[in-house]
Amino acid sequence: MSKLLIETIDKVQLLTLNRPETKNAFDADLWGLLRDALNSASENPEVHSVIVTGASNTFSSGVDLASMVGDGGANYEEPFETCVDALINYKKPLIAAVDGTAIGGGATILLHFDAIFISPNAKVKYPFSDLGLAPEVGSSLLLFQSLGYQKAAQVLFGAEWISGKEYFDFGMAKYLGEDYYDKAIDYAHQLNEQSLASIIETKAILKSFNADALSAARDLETKAMKRLYGSEDNIKAIEKFFSRKG
User: What is the pTM for the complete model shown?
Assistant: First the structure.
């Protein structure tokens, strides 16, 4: 079965991250599949909006570290970066329906969605200080803009779990409830009644205000990540992280 399930009903395309054995962790294949699906939907006149969710009551556990061992790491960067580009450049409504775990890449990509519908059972985490690494996907800028400096610093420095309610209370989700998925579908259908041409133009304008800053943030994050990856501090942090998990 595909790592990304695709279904389109009434001009709403549902993309389901489907690696339940890894809690929907992203390997190079899944980044590439999500990228291709978003780029295709962006140009498909039969798709008005996209909803991204995860299989088996979880959104995504982030990067699949096991898939990056050996040659896997060399094949990871291109689909990852181009998928982030696809998220940023997707020109129609982009909606997330989130349950269970959303950590690392599974949390940072949410910052690029237009609306998030979240379950009270969801748990979101930006784990970079746990791993001795830098933020990614422009999350440093987007969290700063959403939360302000001090709260963004606390979220990133502490790397603590954020409940679905806390995420909603931060103003980062449109809806909180057990029926988060149904409400996401309802919202997408509501948007079907609006002018798609108007939405596309409006989204392009809104995105343009942040384009240069987001590009600069991604560049700074990449440079910081390269400085930290494989460092003594990174290795110690990962050893500590996995010893706690055990």
Answer: 0.94
